[in-house]
Write a structure and sequence with these properties.
mainly alpha; about 0% strand
């Protein structure tokens, strides 16, 4: 890999992060939305909510963007850079769903971020 990501690879990587995070958040909203019933009735209720379909749409876009990204960078670098999605999802979960971030998770966020930065710059 060169000293930095090519601009196109950086743009596609950012799209991957945004749509993957958006998909995860949409699925969380779909799963926690006030739906009555359980079992099949709950799944039918979720299928009628736009959150589920937004999440699925995000995953389709992310699949295409991920393939494009992997065509631009080596697989080993792509997978490591893709791990920043974990950080984005944890931070979004904290902000939108008031989920707790333990000290170990914060340390994990910092380590993942540092690792992605190192891979992206080397």
């Amino acid at each position: 890999m060169t000293s930095t990501l090519p601009p196109v690879a950086l743009l596609v990587w950012m799209v991957c992060v945004v749509v993957d995070t958006g998909g995860q958040l949409a699925f969380k909203y779909a799963a926690t939305d006030a739906i009555e019933g359980d079992g099949v009735a709950r799944w039918r209720g979720m299928a009628r909510r736009p959150w589920l379909w937004l999440g699925l749409s995000c995953y389709v876009v992310e699949f295409v963007a991920w393939l494009a990204f992997l065509s631009l960078v080596p697989l080993s670098d792509g997978v490591l850079l893709g791990s920043i999605n974990i950080v984005a999802i944890m931070l979004a979960g904290r902000y939108l769903f008031k989920e707790q971030l333990s000290q170990l998770r914060v340390i994990g966020i910092l380590l993942i971020t540092a690792g992605v930065a190192i891979v992206g710059w080397t």
